[in-house]
Amino acid sequence: MPRQSPLDLPHDDPFGPHNLPYGVFTTPDAPDVRRIGVRYGNHVLDAGAAAAAADSPHAALLGHPTLNPLMAAGRPVWQAVRAELRAWLTEEARRPAVEPLLHPLTAVALHLPFEVADYVDFYASEHHAANVGRMFRPEGEPLTPNWKHLPIGYHGRAGTVVVSGTPIGRPRGQLGSPSGHTLPPFGPSRRLDFEAEVAFVIGAPSPVNTPVPLSGFHDHVFGVCLLNDWSARDIQSWEYRPLGPFLGKSFATSVAAWVTPLDALAAARTGPPARDVPLLPYLDDSAAEPGAFDLRIEVALNGHPIAHPPFATMYWTAAQQLAHMTVNGASLRTGDLFASGTVSGPEPHQRGCLLELTWSGRDPLRLPDGERTFLEDGDEVTLTAWAPGPDNNRVALGEVTGRIAPSAR
Amino acid sequence: MPRQSPLDLPHDDPFGPHNLPYGVFTTPDAPDVRRIGVRYGNHVLDAGAAAAAADSPHAALLGHPTLNPLMAAGRPVWQAVRAELRAWLTEEARRPAVEPLLHPLTAVALHLPFEVADYVDFYASEHHAANVGRMFRPEGEPLTPNWKHLPIGYHGRAGTVVVSGTPIGRPRGQLGSPSGHTLPPFGPSRRLDFEAEVAFVIGAPSPVNTPVPLSGFHDHVFGVCLLNDWSARDIQSWEYRPLGPFLGKSFATSVAAWVTPLDALAAARTGPPARDVPLLPYLDDSAAEPGAFDLRIEVALNGHPIAHPPFATMYWTAAQQLAHMTVNGASLRTGDLFASGTVSGPEPHQRGCLLELTWSGRDPLRLPDGERTFLEDGDEVTLTAWAPGPDNNRVALGEVTGRIAPSAR
């Protein structure tokens, strides 16, 4: 029996020709030479080499060590490159040239696929925001009065965005109020958490004083990736008044190694939840194309599934977030990353962080390897997701995984 | 009488050989060729050309279009380059070679001198925080319970940091609660403000999980510049609960065109205010070298001085801010920018923003060209500052100025 070609995928492979996410990889023989790769099944196509072999007009764009130049090129180029990639991977006549350019995933190292410009994190799940409000501000209404009028967001630390697989050092810091002592408690966080999120990556920039309307979403957003916004709840709850999260989040944010092109998720578009209050014109998507994405996320802790957050239930869409983020005149840069905030659905098993899943530690999770309230050293959190694709196929997003390392000192 | 040389400065020129701030400039004949410049009096030395002419080992570092490579090189290199610059500008024998490399300030264009990595803004003036607390949260204590235990900060938008002189478009946005109507009020901000701040620029990076102690301040901070954190108070006060400022700040932040080396401010070091509560060891500077800087700021509105904020009165020092920012394990990148927050002293004329100076618009300022509560289109805000230097000389910081342009649409 002949060896099976990596180009022969099962027709329902979730990383088939309808997906084609982009990443950046190195091979062991050239660990300093970063190359753009495209995932196909469990292999990585060396996209720059494939483009050079095909004498593609986009060979230079695909020959960079990051995705940024391709991302900056704009949607017509993204679509042309995607069509070329599909042809290279599926046309019979190209097999002899393309097959040698495929590397098994297990034989490459994956890197942060793009240089992050600014990182913004939103707070777009009504279920998450209400649950957190009940826990952090039990004296008040679960949602702040502004919550249904605008997508609340804040800037995070771009310099500590790391690729899936990077170990996450347990952060140290002030863990709460002095409460009777002279000094606040200090040390490694005791309430370390993950947040299951979906992030969007800006490709085409926008100038200052030029807000991006809802309809401009496709022209600026290059792709989508899973994101884990690691959070130290004890540090966060002590520091966040009045200027928001800072050290409780800034130690690390993990993103997947694969950026899924927006066009791969066309079949996953769906209508957002009904709005409870009228929206200002720049946010009103009642006449726009469906702005939500039907992504089904799974959270696994040490290999055990612990939650299934449904991205389609988010109150605010990514298009609304982009319109809001720029309505004040702020510009966009290639590599800007904005994330949804924790994805939590209405059901208890759909909650996207331990703070909610254990109700702030009151209800521990029972796992085969013991109970959990918050993350312990050595714990590994893995987010995966899939969306409906064309022809009843699934489109998988690249996983984002990270293991907790003990505090450094 | 012979033409006076730009190398002949009055001995008390605040941009004399004891100062030597760095910037990036272009000349009209080569508007695309950005060059590193050093300010000397009212001239700019082409530092790259001077280094090449002197056959300096640092010619390559000074030949870049931004300061980032020089900033990344670390303190021993900063000190060596500074000594070379002083020699080039002051040694008699070098005059014929150096004089032609000086351009009048009026003949060059100045640019953002470094690529901003992450931008963090602190909230370090007790007087400012207490005044804002009284206005924004009149029902509670002026300071939140954490305020004297840690330097509160948050991440701002790096992509909208602009150089002094850039026009500032009036931001649009949601201006407050719907209060009886179905939609929040929307339009150009009616409460546009400045914030007089001092910013610190990271040169040498630090790895993850390696906090920078108070004593590491000099090894990582390359220099200092004035910063205006433009703020739309109506947008900010509606959006900021619970995750902090976002669109009320992200439209623009202006920095000076000149970065003053930390070593130029050695004579300006002074002790910080007495602490009211004990501090954790990583923040306790009672045995450290004096952590405050005696910078005297002036704020001018359309040329009229309206405030004189004293930087030495800040409760938290930049060294404490740096120690706090990294205590959780967050890394530093070359180009990280962190700012003090509004500098306000205890006296009314020492307040660093209109929100405080007019007490939220209640007490308008009387200027020769009319009353002001908040900024009007066409208003120009200019921050200048000086510090005590060696030999009773003054060290001036480069100004930061900006004029308000009408909302774009």
From TrEMBL, chains A, B:
Q: What is one Pfam family matched by this protein?
A: FAA_hydrolase
Its protein name is fumarylacetoacetase
UniProt-annotated stretches for the region Disordered = 1-20
Q: Which gene encodes it?
A: fahA
Question: Which pathway, metabolic or otherwise, does it act in?
Answer: Amino-acid degradation; L-phenylalanine degradation; acetoacetate and fumarate from L-phenylalanine: step 6/6
Fumarylacetoacetase-like C-terminal domain location, by residue?
120-394
Write down the superkingdom of origin: Bacteria
Query: Which cofactors is this protein said to need?
Result: Ca(2+); Mg(2+)
Which keywords appear in this protein's UniProt record, sorted alphabetically?
A: Calcium, Hydrolase, Magnesium, Metal-binding, Phenylalanine catabolism, Tyrosine catabolism
**Which part of the chain is the Fumarylacetoacetase N-terminal domain?**
18-113
Annotated EC: 3.7.1.2
Provenance organism: Streptomyces cuspidosporus
**Record carries keyword Magnesium:** yes
